[in-house]
Amino acid sequence: LRGLNVAEHGASTELFELLTNMDRHYRAGDFRTPVPVEPHTEVGQIAAEYNRVIRRASSEIRAREEAAASARTAEEKYRSIFENAVEGMFQTTPDGRYLSANPALAGIYKYESPEELIRSLDKLDVQLYVEEGRRNDFRTLVERDGMVRDFESAVRCHDGSVIWISENARAIRDSKGAVVCYEGTVVDITARREARSLQAEKEAAET
Predict the structure, then answer these.
(1) Of 194, 129, 125, which Cα lies nearest the Cα of 156?
(2) Is the Cβ–Cβ distance between 60 and 86 less than 8 Å?
(3) What string of pLDDT tens digits covers the 207 residues of the chain?
(4) CB atoms within 10 A of CB 88
(5) Would you give the end-to-end CA distance of the chain in angstroms?
(6) Closest CA to 107 of 186, 183, 193
(7) How far is CA 146 from CA 66, 140, 168, in A?
(8) How far is the C-alpha of 180 from the C-alpha of 173, rounded, in Å?
(9) Strand-pair category, 98-101 with 147-156
(10) Which of 74, 93, 135, 197 has most Cβ atoms within 10 angstroms of its Cβ?
C-alpha cells in the first residue's frame, strides 16, 4: 500500500507526505496544525485548499463547543435556581400531572421530596385543589391570556392540612401553538390570608 520506494528505501513524495498528514488529522481528530504546503506544485495547491477546509472546520468546531459550553452554563444556573429557590416551582401537563417540581414546592405541600410529590399527584383537579373546578379555572385563564398572576386557591397538603397558595404561571406552546405544559411558581399565602381575614373582622367590629 505504501509502495516499494517508501517501504524498501524510505523514500518520500509530496503526495505521500500530504496523505500521511491527512491520515494523522483523521486519526487524532485534531485539526489545529495545518499540513505542510509545498509551493508551486499541484500537491501544494491541494494541501493549501485542505488547510482552508480544516481552518473552517476548526472554526465551526470551536463555535459549537462554545455554544455547548454556554448551554451547559445556562442549564447549571437554571438548575441551581430551580433547586434552591424559596418559591415553589413546577411544570404540569394540561390534564393535571406534574412533570417537574423543586424542593421548595415539595416542602409547601408537605412532601418529603419532589419525586414523592410527582408520584403522588397525578390528578390535580381532585387531589390538590379544595374547591371543585378550581383547576379548570386555572387552565381557562392561562390558555386564554397565556399566563395567570396571583391565582389564589385553597389546596390539600400531604398531611391532610389545608393551606392557601398563590400561583403565577404561563403556558408553554409547541410550534403549532398547542399547549405543551404550564410552568410557574407557588407561594404559601396562608398567613397572609389569615391576617387579611383578621383585619376584615377588626374593621367590621369597629364599624
Answers:
(1) 129
(2) no
(3) 767 777 776 666 778 788 888 888 888 887 778 888 888 888 888 988 998 988 888 888 888 888 888 888 888 777 777 777 889 999 999 999 999 999 999 999 999 999 999 999 999 999 999 999 999 999 999 989 999 999 999 999 999 999 999 999 999 999 888 999 999 999 999 998 888 888 888 888 888
(4) 23
(5) 105
(6) 186
(7) 33, 10, 11
(8) 5
(9) unpaired
(10) 135
CB 34 within 8 A of CB 57: no
How high is the pLDDT of residue 168? Answer: 96
* 179 Ramachandran zone, left/alpha/beta (phi>0; psi -120 to 50): beta
- pTM higher than 0.90, yes or no? no
**pLDDT for residue 22:** 86
Which residue has cell 528505501? Answer: 9
- Looking at residue 109, what is its pLDDT? 96
All cell numbers assigned to 154: 385553597
Cell of 196: 387579611
